[in-house]
Amino acid sequence: MALLAALFAFEVQAEIPQAARQAQIVILGELHDNPDHHVRQAMWVAELRPKALVFEMLTPVQGLNAQSEWSSQAELDGLIGWSDTAWPSFDMYYPIFAAAPDAAIYGAGITRGQLQHMLEIPLATYPPAKRFGLDEPLDAQEQSAREALQAEAHCNALPETLLPMMVEAQQHRDISLADAALRALEQTGGPVAVITGNGHARADWGVPSLLAHAAPDVIVFALAQAEGDAEISGGFSLTLDAPAPMRGDPCAAFTR
Q: Rounded to whole angstroms, how far apart are CA atoms 253 and 187?
């Protein structure tokens, strides 16, 4: 077992390109419930030694709580309350924290209540939108593509009238992640690693595109993680593969 772990660690070291090692912000995409994706994230973090970690899964308050001293998974879980959330098991995510125990932790998550308030006003009037180039409507082709992805992600069970709101919610989350990454870079000097889903990591319209608009001189690297050689669109810096875990029917909840 130890030999297999050592071989995997060597493979991960070899797969990290120089562009990622030189980047100021490295976005590490994932499918949230794939344990192998999180193993790779932890190994990349251990190798890249970021000064800060930004998590989609943590709110800013949880990020601050994670700054307190902790020495075990249980202690950190108690500080941030991960196991009380709907995110997958902390067993998969804790190794990422442990891989950079001295890194500053930033939460970029938005609560449901905060998001509902944000969606009550036009995105163009949301103060950070202009900074990140989201103060203008999306072109029709991109809007349509985004809505189709949201429909697919929700098993085509949502009314079509809700899809524009789902796209806007994704944009708010992109803004929060990009803003947290830039603050982390400014406050720590970097490098910064961002832990998030593949959808936020995509270079064409996800967090990298917002960073390019707001801070074009910042060097960004975006990793996508696929399953079973599946293609992921989005123009990532690099796409790597991992086996798919055993899953139930993801659409079962929509058909009850």
A: 42
Question: 26 Cβ partners below 8 Å, 6+ apart?
Answer: 20, 44, 48, 50, 191, 192, 193, 194, 220, 221, 222, 223
Assign 33 to helix, strand or coil. coil
Tens digit of each residue's pLDDT (9 = 90 or more) over 148-204: 999 998 899 999 999 999 999 999 999 999 999 999 999 999 999 999 999 999 999
Tell me, yes or no, if the pTM score tops 0.90: yes
Which pair of structure tokens corresponds to residue 234? 């989005």
φ and ψ of 189, to 5 deg: 85, -10
CA dist., res. 98 & res. 45, Å (int): 9
Count of other CB atoms within 10 angstroms of residue 238? 15
Regions of the chain with pLDDT less than 70: 1-11, 253-256
